[in-house]
Amino acid sequence: MKIQYTSTLIALLFVASVSAQKLSRTEKKIVSTIEKNNSEAIDFLEKVVNINSGTLNAEGVKKVGMVFKDAFDNIGFETKWIEMPAEMNRAGHLFAETTGTKGKKLLLIGHLDTVFEEDSPFQTFEMVNDSMAHAPGGNDMKGGDVIVLYALKALSENGLLENAQIVVAFTGDEESTGKPLSISRKDLIDAAKRSDIALGFETSTGFNYATVARRGASGWAVEVEGKRAHSSGVFSEGTGAGAIFEMSRILHQFYTDVKGEDLLTFNPGVLLGGTFVNFDELTSKGDAFGKTNVVAQKAVVKGGLRFISEEQKERAREKMREIVANNLPKTSASISFTDSYPAMQPTEGNLALLETLNEVSLDLKQGEVLAYDPGRRGAADVSFVAEYVDGLDGLGTMGNNAHTPQETVNLNTIEALTKRTAILIYRLINTK
Fold first, then answer.
1. Which residues in 295-318 are b (16+ Cβ under 10 Å) and which e?
2. CATH 3.30.420.40 fits 7-214+344-428, yes or no
3. Which of 172, 180, 392, 410 is deepest in the core (most CB within 10 A)?
4. Which CATH architecture has domain 217-341?
């Protein structure tokens, strides 16, 4: 059963506090192991942060993947690197797995790539103070990957992974998903189909929140053609409005007529117009040539659309098509859409998982955990598997300014978040 609620209601949603049970003797051993390994975990994070793995740096993404592969091999996981076809210009994915029939079958999701490409000036891990470090991709999301690794390492060192099915999927192109999705997300979806629960380790929004719903993401592009002519004739019957005025009309009507539904947003990210326009899809860079005394004959815009359901996405697309079709004189326009991430809707199963996490957090004396507003989260790989399994996301590290040269990761929270993850996994793989 699907549960729908607005961003206002989600802010009011809470999981009832339950009387905290004491950690078991085994769980106390897990916690102790994580404390012992925490310094090593932070060193490991610094090591992988200092390897550039911008999405288009296929060699760097794979290099980071191999560091994690060795670490998972060392704790008894079967690992494999899944190459992507060369024409996709993506590195591939790391999968690590244990097999068994005990308890819930888990899929743990992370990603190896970052938004910082090889030409970025932001490349290295650097301490800001005794708790914070500037780290490109350290928060989004190599820190989350490290939490997964060191939670599982603690369970392995205590002999607690026997007969459990756990699949770790670290994708190499989350920040810019390879196309077609039928190839780039096939292995992730196949793993979900043989799992019961998916846990995503994207950036945490704090100890007191986890993600039960994420909006989907879709690309859109508008192309406009106008009549090239001397600017003295603009607005005349023979010349018309030109491409840039027509594009302005379209964008303004998107703003006034499509905007308004709760959790629906759309953003024009790049706009070019003039006499001649060139745009490179791969690099998302372009150029335009035009003169003030020439009516523009070409305009293009590329944008993104965020939505909480497929139905909401289709409603928005239909409105956008209607607006694009109603052209100013002597212009024509077309719109196209590209699917990227589906929505992760809030379900009863997701909320039940949140309650389990809440109990773990209370037992660790880390506080109550509530559902985070999906309107404040971007898309993520967990959305691809939401159709097949119950899931939670936002279980990774804490920090600030992700996707910017000021990105930080809070090192003082890694130990506590790793404890939470390890105890959650332990309880799930011991639950029928």
1. bbbbbbbbbbbbbbbeebbeebbe
2. no
3. 172
4. 2-Layer Sandwich (3.30)
